[in-house]
Every structure is written in C-alpha cells, then in structure tokens.
Design a protein that fits this description.
Blueprint lengths: L5 E2 L9 E3 L23 H4 L5 H8 L4 E3 L2 H7 L7 E3 L1 H7 L4 E6 L10 H13 L4 E6 L3 H13 L2 E7 H6 L1 H9 L3 E5 L5 H9 L7 H14 L3 E3 L6 H7 L1 H12 L6 E5 L4 H15 L6 E7 L4 H4 L1 E6 L8 E6 L21 H8 L4 E5 L1 H15 L8 H17 L4 E6 L7 H8 L10 H9 L8
Parallel strand pairs: 5-15, 6-7, 6-9, 7-8, 10-11, 10-15, 11-14
Antiparallel strand pairs: 1-4, 2-3, 4-5, 12-13
Helix pairs in contact: 2-11, 3-5, 4-16, 5-6, 6-8, 11-13, 12-13, 16-17
The structure holds pyridoxal-5'-phosphate (PLP).
C-alpha cells in the first residue's frame, strides 16, 4: 500500500466522458410527467427551458457521454482535483480505518458546482443562447454559473433566496464580480414573486420560490433559458467526473473504498463521487456501502415520501418521482443552505428505493464539531454542507476503532467554508442551535402532494 497523503492525476487524465448510471440500472427510473395531462413529457415540453443537448442527456440511457473539448479545457483550470489520505485525522481519531477524501473546493467558485455550470453554459452557447436565469440558495450555485457565464459570454440572472441575500453579501458580490446580476427572491420582477410578496411581504424566501421565479423568466423570454444546479439527471451526469477520477486515484493508492460518503442536498456531489462506484458494483464489481448524508432539519431521504412532486413551490415545473417533503414544505433556517431543498434527485431516490445506497440524517451541531476536528487535523475548513459527510466519515472511522476492524472510507469534501465563517463563529461561541422541522407542517405538505393517476 502506498504511504502518500495526496494523489494527483496529470491533466490528460481528466475524463473524456461522463458516466451515465441509467445504462446500468436493474430497473429504469420513473418517467417525468406533465402536470396538466399526467402523461410522460417529451423533449418539446422542456425546450423553452433547456438547450436540446441537455434535454438529450436528461433522457439518455447511453453509458458514456463524451465531454466536449471546450468543457475539458475549462476543467483543466482545477481538474483533476486531488484525492487525499487523511492520515492526520486518522491519527487524531486513533482509528485503524483508512480515510480518503476527494477535494472539490479548489475550483474557482470553491465547490463541485462548476463541474456542471461550465458544461451547461457551454451547451447553451452552442445553441446560441445569450441569457440564463437561475436561482441560488446559499450562493454556491449562483457564483458557479456566474463564473461559467463569464467564460462563455452568457448573461446570468440569479434569484437568490432572500434570507441568504441579506446574510451573505459576499456571495452576491462574487456573482457581480463575474458579471452576473443578482436579486433577492421573491422579487417584484416576476408575476409569481409579486404574488408571494403581496400575500407575505416579509417572507424569507425559499429555494422552491426562487426556482419558480427563474423558470418563469425563462418560460416568458425566447432569448432566455433556465439552469438548475442539482437534482436533474444531466447535472448528476456532469458531476461524475469526480468519481471517475477517484477510481483512478484509489488505484494509485492501491486501495478500494469499503464505504463511500457524500452530503446530499439535491444529490449531485453525492452522485458525482458515488455513481461511478455504484455502476462498477452493478456491473459485478466490488460492493461498497454508499451513504448519502442529509440534514436532520430537511430529511427528504429518511423522512420524505417517494412520490411524484413538483420541483418548485409555484408549480411551474413538470412532476418528477423523488423522495420529497412536499413542494410547499419550507425547512427551518440552518447553516448548510445548500442542503435546504424539499426534494432529492430522482436517480438518487430511485437507487435508495432499489436498496443500492443508504441514507442518514444528522443535526448541525455534531456536523460543525466534525468540521472543526477535520480542519484542525487536515487544514481545510469544510463548507457547512460538506461537514455532513465529514461527520459520518468520522463516525464510521470510530466504529472501526470500537470493532477493531480496518475499513477504507472515501468521502467527498464538496467545498470549502470560507464564506461561511459566521456559522463557524456561531458554533465556536456556543450559540448554534439544532433546528427541528415542524412535524405538523411536514404532514400537511405531504398531504398536499399532487395526485398522479399513473402511480
Ligand atoms: C450546493 C452544495 C451542496 C449540495 O448540493 P448537492 O447537489 O446535493 O451536491 C453540497 N456541498 C456544497 C459545497 C454545495 O455548494
């Protein structure tokens, strides 16, 4: 076994294709339905929102989808990303487990999200699109798409959830630095936003509302498309560069993971690392335990229902079958803003349903505790979202210690936390609270799920 602490791949090892897990699934995922007719939608239904190339990827069952050269050329700015062996953390935990992590915080925006932002901006430009509207929660996605828009000459408009817009002025400044424009959502720029503001002028906003506004802008303007930073099949597909590289890096380490861990908001960084390994298993390879970690305050995989639901609060999107807390559910405010979505990627939900992956929910205080323990050993300060993966990696390593077994653990460190120091500050001063969702509101959001005849 190699005794390195970092595994770097040369530039030419950037994957030439993304991995599409649909090709290897034992049962296909449920079709996307039109909310009006209840029938499966076709490419034309999505054409107002997305370029045709991305619609093609959304419904593709081809295993390997070529990464266009201009996208690979941008990936070269920070990819292949490093894989580290967390030897100092192992020592601090005094565990026989081996802990590896893939670090996605070295991208210009500081997270995994540019992996898909760059691809989406490229395909839009190829089809002559000049403007893209989108939403952002904590600001990670908005800044990633703003970066990609700057590279490909596309104007980006971002609807940022109001509570984050007020709390995180530097993420907004970052988007503006890249040339994007960013407004607080709900805004008075859309019909939907004006309606929400009329009935609830002091609303904090939510990701579901911001999606409705961004979709409305794209649907009403011929020159504008829409982009989503997680959940959809093509987004998960673009993120698989993470796992494809990790497979090669684990080979360099002469090792293979027994346990693979990722935090899950919409599911894209988890899928990005995990799906290439799950695919290898589905094709008869080794069978690691693959764990998606979600916040206890927004537990779509562990408490939600696997059912057809809308992707947004205003009900402008098609219906997708996913683990959901209900499109009207507004999670309590907690610091991992990137994990505050009511649903989960249909492909991740489907794999949980098939028993190919597991899910766990954790509260934010133990996550920040893990984030700090990680920072003190490994030096990198994890994004609040990523601390969820760190927590479970540490828990699994401690379990190995108790059992006296050595397992190989691999987790995704999806981003750094340099814009989230206010959250760390709250934790360090003992002011951070573990939030619980309102069980009655969850019940009523679930009771309001749309009825779908096809089910
Ligand atoms: C957005 C974000 C997430 C959550 O999104 P997924 O699609 O579930 O990956 C996790 N980590 C970071 C750093 C993020 O920015």
């Amino acid at each position: 076994m190699s005794d390195s602490i970092k595994y770097f791949l040369p530039e030419e090892k950037i994957a030439k294709s993304w991995y599409n897990i649909v090709a290897d699934l034992p049962a296909p995922p449920a079709p996307v339905l039109h909310p009006g007719t209840g029938q499966p939608i076709g490419p034309d239904d999505l054409a107002p929102l997305f370029p045709m190339a991305l619609i093609g990827q959304e419904v593709s069952a081809e295993r390997d989808i070529e990464i266009p050269k201009p996208v690979r050329d941008v990936y070269r700015m920070w990819r292949p990303s490093p894989l580290y062996r967390a030897r100092r953390l192992e020592q601090a935990l005094d565990t026989p487990a081996k802990i590896y992590y893939k670090y996605e915080g070295g991208s210009p925006a500081g997270s995994h999200k540019p992996n898909t932002a760059v691809a989406q901006a490229f395909y839009n430009r190829e089809e002559g699109i000049k403007k893209i509207s989108t939403e952002t929660g904590a600001g990670q996605w908005g800044s990633s798409l703003a970066f990609a828009g700057a590279l490909f000459g596309i104007e980006i408009s971002v609807f940022m959830v109001k509570v984050s817009y007020d709390q995180k002025p530097y993420r907004r400044a970052m988007m503006e630095t890249y040339g994007a424009n960013c407004v607080a959502s709900p805004s008075n720029l859309t019909e939907y936003g004006r309606a929400v503001l009329a009935s609830d002028p002091d609303t904090t906003g939510s990701l579901g509302m911001a999606i409705s506004e961004a979709v409305e802008v794209a649907a009403k303007n011929d020159d504008t498309k829409y982009a989503l930073g997680s959940v959809l099949n093509h987004v998960l597909l673009h993120q698989t560069v993470i796992g494809m590289e990790a497979i090669e890096q684990m080979e360099m380490a002469d090792d293979y993971p027994d346990i693979i861990i990722g935090c899950a908001g919409g599911g894209s960084n988890f899928a990005g690392l995990g799906f290439p390994f799950v695919g290898a298993k589905l094709r008869g390879g080794p069978a690691p335990t693959v764990i998606a970690v979600e916040p206890a305050a927004c537990p779509s995989l562990t408490r939600g229902t696997f059912a057809y639901d809308f992707g947004d609060t205003g009900h402008f999107t098609p219906l997708v079958k996913m683990h959901t807390l209900g499109s009207t559910f507004v999670p309590p405010g907690f610091h991992a803003g990137g994990l505050r979505y009511h649903g989960m990627a249909p492909l991740v939900s489907h794999l949980l349903h098939l028993g190919e992956i597991e899910a766990r929910a954790v509260h934010q205080n133990p996550c920040f505790e893990a984030g700090i323990q990680f920072a003190r050993a490994e030096g990198i300060i994890p994004a609040p979202e990523a601390t969820h993966a760190v927590r479970v990696a540490i828990d699994e390593a401690l379990k190995c210690k108790v059992e006296g077994t050595s397992r190989t653990i691999l987790f995704n460190l999806s981003g750094h936390g340099h814009f989230d120091m206010a959250a760390y500050d709250e934790f360090l001063s003992g002011k951070l609270e573990d939030k619980d969702y309102d069980a009655e509101k969850l019940d009523s959001a679930l009771a309001a799920l749309p009825e779908v005849a096809a089910e």
